[in-house]
Amino acid sequence: MRQSLVIVGAGPRGTGLIERIAASAPELYAGPGLDIHLVDPHPPGAGRIWRAAQSPLLWMNSHAEDVTMFTDETVVMDGPVRPGPTLHEWAGVDGALFADRQLQGAYLRWVHERAVAGLPAEITVHHHPCRALRVSGSREGRQRVWLENGPRPLLADLVVLALGHLDAELDDEQGELAAYAGEHGLTHLPPDFTADSDLSALAPGEPVLVRGFGLAFVDLMVLLTEGRGGRYEGDTYLPSGREPVLYVGSRRGVPYHAKIGYDWTGERPPLPRFLGPAEIEELTARPGRSHGPGEAGSGGALDFRRDVWPLVEKELGFAHYHRLFTAHPERTAMAWTDFEEKYAAASGAAEREALVSSAVPDPHDRLDLAALDRPLDGVRYASHEEFQDGLRGYVEDDLSRRHDPRNSADLGVFLGLLSVYGQLVRLGDIGPWWHGFFSHLASGPPGPRLRNLLALSRAGVLRFVGADMAVRAEDGVFRASSPTVPGFSVEARALVEARLPEPTLRRARDPLLRELYAEGAGETADGLLRVDRADGRILDRAGRPHPRRFALGPHTDGRTPGAFTRPRTGGPAFRQNDATARAALVFLRDLGAEAAA
């Protein structure tokens, strides 16, 4: 009897899993034949986020040369390396180009087709263009995957959830704001994938409060300006007259740092150094669950700020100063070998800071992670207009620094962040703060988008609110204020939450995940699906791995920066895909052998 594997989600994560199955099947699988069923209403490869049916104005936030779906020797995995082209090599475009999402979707479709073509002849792939509603079946027997378009379930020996970004029910605050909007005829757009939001209610010339200053905001900015007929002439924006006026703020009050705009040359920092497998093994051996920043641990429980952050801080500092000393030695006052020895021996942050002060004369060459994370902390402006000038200056300085190779220690920190993320994913759920910090420093918008932002600000289409933006629903309107500009507030009849929904089990609109939770799937303190970090098997509330159910992606506590990555950076998602693919193939092989015995 042919065996069956159901993969729910056919986007880049599901495609990456098929690629790894194709790579390891010749070694691990010799069963009677295998049917792989892909369940996804969107086209395989591109999935929802990278589908063709979206505005061509929306870009990726990575250079085309920094995007790959293929493994290389830097990925720590048991399966074979199967190299392949980056996006820019495949598309034949300038590697420094920020490709649009439609082009990335085409690349992902091609990768999917290549992966399927690379499967052994006895493995067949079937696409079901619909949603999966639930999974049933005992731990010991075949699973049943129920689909929205048919009365009969798919029978599966194994099920892998590769669901990607999901919609979510509103939390308490969002629910109250939505209800208030309904009562007073206001517009409230909750967290969403911006390309799916209905922006038609945001009227020309009217003020709109926008909470969120990351990549979802950049998409919103583009769709409400160029998407409504505006255009740029150099650094000047020429409005169409159809734009609303966007008042944007967030917790930090500033946009994500711009993508670095120059190439790496010279020696790379030897990473990991202070946060590698040995340190992760020691951290995971501690009893108790992990906590997010600011949460108190108890007894021997793991606390991010106390136990993990000092290692992260030291690792990022090492990456920064390795680059500074090796590429820009004229700006240092000590030999690298001496600095490295003393840096490694330093027992804490204060000792490291003293060392850096003596070895790096210019404060601008020193790494200050707190200032990078919260640049407006304690900063106050006398007026709203003064703040507009101040934040434009901040963005201009960031753009200048991120495009100047004399500041290439920043690129060392970027590589350090990628290395750290690849290690921290092994710890499971460490709270949301780290993911936001990483995105702010390492996953920001293309430089041209921030130049667009500056032009929109000068044109009066975009206004900055400040840090710790507070939104109140009162007097029939929404009001926003920030301590950055004491005494200033702005009111509007529209509020947009410019961010993706939180990937929580309890509030997921996806019926399959909600059913899993109701049936006893494990959940972290932050609401993520608990999985075995070795191979992605879903854990129940007692911590037992399900032998026939796996999960990969942002809704799990094994979430990674993305389903694809920059070449030669270890690719934690690739490592996970490989481990899950090999575990699935071994299970199916052994199951087939038992049936034949």
TrEMBL record:
InterPro entries: FAD/NAD-bd_sf, HpyO/CreE_NAD-binding, L-asp_N-monooxygenase_NS-form. Pfam families: NAD_binding_9. Transmembrane segments: none annotated. Residues 543-575 are annotated as: Disordered. Residues 6-165 form the FAD-dependent urate hydroxylase HpyO/Asp monooxygenase CreE-like FAD/NAD(P)-binding domain. It comes from the Bacteria. This is Adenylate cyclase.
